[in-house]
Amino acid sequence: MEQHDKRILILGVGNILYTDEGFGVRVAEELEQRYEFPPNVETLDGGTLGFKLMGPIMESDHLIIVDIVLNDGKPGDVFRLKGEDLSKSLAFKNSMHQTDLLDVLAHCKLIGQVPDTVVLLGVEPKDYETMSTELSGELTDKLPEVLDAVLKEITAAGGTYTPRTADNPSPEKVYVPRSTS
Question: Among the CATH numbers 3.30.565.10, 3.40.50.1450, 3.30.450.40, 3.40.50.720, which is that of 3-163?
Fold first, then answer.
């Protein structure tokens, strides 16, 4: 498979109802608003979907997860975890969302469809317990840094992106109900 044909999934996870817990989702939203991606690069608000994320994960060649992590750092510290460090991090449940991504990835591996590369860009939260849809100031300040880190990961995986302009605005989000048949 050509490098530029790799399917790259940026997966923002977390619960937007609990302050910094929604950081990964907010990053995915910002990426979608600010950049246009070719068909092989997808941003996904994974929320707290858990095993429902297996399909998109198994269809990707390169997975970039954005979430908060408890890594004994200061609020706003950014961590890039990959390979064994990622497994150790998720195994100790310091990915704060309600989904255990290690279990999801393990199930994908059992099926034989796991991405070639998995990277977690994690940020130490300040507050993940207060019910609020707003991020703390510390994590709001880290949005540009994490957006840049995600764009670097996309480029390293062979993907591209184009900043949105007035001539190339962000698409409107439209709810389309799925057929129940």
Answer: 3.40.50.1450
